[in-house]
Structure formats: structure tokens, C-alpha cells
Amino acid sequence: MNCNVPKPLIMSIDVTYKCTMRCLHCFNGSNENELESELTDEELLYLADQIIDIMPNVICFCGGEPLIRREILYLCCEKIVKGTNGYTKVNIVTNGELVNNEVARNLRKAGFNLIQVSLDGAKPETHDWLRNKIGSFNKAVNAIKCLVEAGLYVGVAFTPTLRNIPEIDEAIKLCEQLGVCEFRVQPLMVMGRAKRNLNGYIPTYRDYQILATKLKWLQLQQIAKKGMNVEWGDPVDHLIRSNYRESGYNPFIGIDAYGYLRISPYLPLTFGNIRRHRILEYWNSGLSNVWNLPIVKWISKQIRATEDLDLSSKGFKEVYWEKSVDIDLIEDDISEVKPEQFFAKN
């Protein structure tokens, strides 16, 4: 790639929006929305070749439930790990339902670095409620056991609600007992199904302050005893930081299941499609410093806190539920893009 342009450090690919569950909080409406045809196996392999050329630090396969397409993901991971000599770490997120000993061994054999399993409570009834499926807690716990037994680095993602926050100490203890390496928490994204289903269960800003402080303290304790890593994440941090990057440098590229290029999963805005041009062509045509664009600055400033994530409440198109505005950095004239294009039509 162009040596004068910094490379993207982190990439993600939504390999499908199909899922084995219908979670109450799913922000992209997995298993509910299909706006276009998803990337084929051949297109995913072609993407793997492009990732080898780019050599990001990390690539993560997301969804939906990525393991629905596990056979092609094994091939993609093997290709990327071999093609970058192990430089690019390949991660995957999963609800755990499709993981058994065989799948865990295949993930290890393919070269996956981190497997993140969702676990949203210390009790079956709590996790099963949020995942909207009886038995999902036991499946997630079994998945963690299989993955740890296979020798994989396992992380857990915990989505806080007013119902499960009281169980977080028990959940952390359970994960330690299971051999989990990292436990990650970030605020509930009140978008998609969460805004439709979780009224009355959404933590307040004060709730998050207390939880974040607690997790920071637990993190220090874990570091001191060299135990499981505990992390608190902020989903809007990249949007706030974007306004202070003088170069407009964009360290992240997301590719949705339809091939569109995204710089944030929360903005109703894409910058072309890998079915039209290669990623590096877009990168060298302005994707590398896309945060400098006035239209990007304008729309990102609409989100200053987690409660602002649902831009559809301000009349914007709903991300993943409606087609986003696509500005093809190679084919379109960016100067012609107007703010009113981002608003949904009644």
C-alpha cells in the first residue's frame, strides 16, 4: 500500500446478519433485516486476500452469528494468518450456541487469536431473558469450556442492564473459574431492538459511573494478582476523538455484510463497497483521513454520549434498519452531499 499513508490498524467484517437468536438488545437487528444480498464465500475469500495486502493489526469477524458461516471463516483465517506470517491477529465474536469441542478445535487449527463469547448474567434466567432464548446460558458456558479446553484465548462480553448489573460480581467470578482471559463491559447501545424492547431496563448515566468505577478498581486488582483482565469500554469514544484528530486519520475500517465500508457502526453513512473497488483503492482515495470531511464531522457531532446513539430519534435514517447514505469516495462528488440526505423519509 502507499507508504505515505498510515495503514488501518483495526478492521471488522460482518459476515452475516443471520443469527441463531433474536436478542432483545441487538442493535443491528440480526435475523430481522436483510437490506441486500450478503457477501458470498468467494467475496469473503477475496476480502481475505485484500486484508493480507493491508496487514492490519487486528481483524474481527462479527455478525449476526459468524459461526453460521464457520467453514468459510476457517479458510479465511488460515489464509490471513499464513499470508501475514501471523502479524494480523484474527478474532471472532459469538453467542456460543454453535460451539462444541469440534468447532473449538477447528477454530484453534485455523489460527484464530481471540474468541469472544457473550455472557450477560451469572444466572440462566437472566442471560436467557436478554438473549430471548431458553438454554442460551448453558450453551454459552459450555462454549467457553470447549474453547478453553482447546487452548484458545477466550474473552467474554457482558452487556449491562438494570436486571443483570447486580450479578456482575458473580459473573466475573464464574468467568475466572471457567478460565476466561478477559471480561469486557460497555454501555448498552440503545439502538435497534434495544430501544424497542428494553424500556425500563436501561442504566442511567449515574449507574454507568458507578459500574465503570467498580470495574476500574477490579481491573487494578486483577492486574495485581495477574488474573483475568477486566475492561470497561466506551462505544462513543471514537466519535468524540474524531473531532480532535488534526490529520483526520481513520484507524478503523468496518465492512458490513453487504460489502459497504464503514468508519463507525453507529453512523448512517458508508464510503463505497468492496464489490465496486478494492479496499486499498478507497483507502488511498480519502478513506484514510475521512474524519476530516465536513459532512463526517457534522454527523459525528450528533453523538456525544451513549444516549445519543439512536440518531433515528432525531429523524436520521436508522442504521442497519434502513439503507445508509453511501458516499463512494472513488465515484461520487463529496461536495454534492447534503445533510438532508441523511434524514429518513416519512
TrEMBL record:
Transmembrane segments: none annotated. Keywords: Iron, Iron-sulfur, Metal-binding, S-adenosyl-L-methionine. PROSITE patterns: RADICAL_SAM (PS51918). One of its GO terms (molecular function) is metal ion binding. GO terms for biological process: heme biosynthetic process. Pfam families: Radical_SAM (PF04055). Residues 5-231 form the Radical SAM core domain. The keyword Metal-binding applies. InterPro entries: Aldolase_TIM, Elp3/MiaA/NifB-like_rSAM, Radical_SAM_PqqE_MftC-like, rSAM, rSAM_sf. The keyword Iron applies. SMART domains: Elp3 (SM00729). This is Radical SAM domain protein.
